[in-house]
């Protein structure tokens, strides 16, 4: 990625595309509940953690400033997808089409779940990026495994707490909410741990190809301020 010309390499674009695809796809497939090792989780568990891995790669190679833009881009892309689905849901179906009920059940979103999803995403992703960027400076770029896993434990933990609390407070007992938070957090974090060798390889590949290794020593964590790349 170049500096002032605001041009982006094919590798950066590919990581961003993967990040946004995982985000939007996970929100669509999250309606399905699956059982893994006796625990009930959403089907999004198979792909959503990849967005955190992409976030780790972006922050480690391109820095927090670039990652911040990508997080907001993902947010607005997801918002556009939700708006398009909602508009299509309200349009009158053809006289011979009998799939409205199925469409509503699978693609219909309640305002409460949307709020939970959007807030959990922003808080979790920004926390993950900020923690990883700060740890990189503190460790001098060493111990990548510790930094990616540590930032994910914090980010995914907050993501799970925010989503489950907003989505289910008052509808399921507190013990059930607590179990849901812990289960989601453990599954997502385990995903990150297992993907650590792949993360190492991708980071090394990109640093070599991009000739880039950003340290956010003057990190301004305000997610609403989109600074220029230094």
Automatic annotation (TrEMBL):
GO MF annotation list: transmembrane transporter activity
GO CC terms in record: plasma membrane
Alphabetical keyword list: Cell membrane, Membrane, Transmembrane, Transmembrane helix, Transport
Keyword Cell membrane belongs to the record: yes
Leader sequence segment: none
Localization per record: Cell membrane
Main location: membrane
HAMAP family referenced in this protein's UniProt entry, alphabetically: Q_prec_transport
Protein name: Probable queuosine precursor transporter
Species for this entry: Oxynema aestuarii AP17
């Amino acid at each position: 990625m170049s500096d002032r010309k605001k041009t982006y390499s094919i590798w950066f674009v590919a990581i961003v595309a993967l990040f946004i695809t995982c985000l939007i796809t996970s929100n669509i497939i999250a309606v399905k509940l699956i059982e893994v090792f006796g625990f009930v989780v959403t089907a999004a568990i198979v792909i959503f953690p990849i967005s955190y891995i992409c976030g780790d790669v972006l922050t480690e190679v391109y820095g927090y400033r670039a990652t911040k833009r990508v997080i907001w881009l993902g947010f607005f892309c997801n918002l556009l997808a939700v708006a398009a689905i909602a508009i299509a849901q309200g349009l009158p179906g053809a006289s011979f089409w009998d799939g409205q009920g199925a469409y509503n059940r699978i693609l219909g979103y309640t305002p409460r779940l949307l709020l939970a999803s959007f807030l959990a995403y922003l808080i979790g992703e920004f926390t993950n990026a900020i923690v990883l960027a700060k740890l990189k400076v503190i460790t001098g770029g060493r111990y990548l495994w510790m930094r990616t896993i540590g930032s994910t434990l914090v980010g995914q933990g907050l993501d799970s707490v925010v989503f489950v609390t907003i989505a289910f407070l008052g509808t399921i007992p507190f013990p059930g909410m607590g179990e849901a938070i812990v289960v989601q957090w453990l599954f997502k974090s385990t995903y990150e741990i297992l993907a650590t060798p792949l993360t190492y390889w991708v980071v090394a590949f990109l640093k070599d190809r991009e000739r880039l290794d950003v340290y956010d020593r003057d990190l301004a964590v305000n997610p609403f301020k989109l600074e220029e790349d230094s």
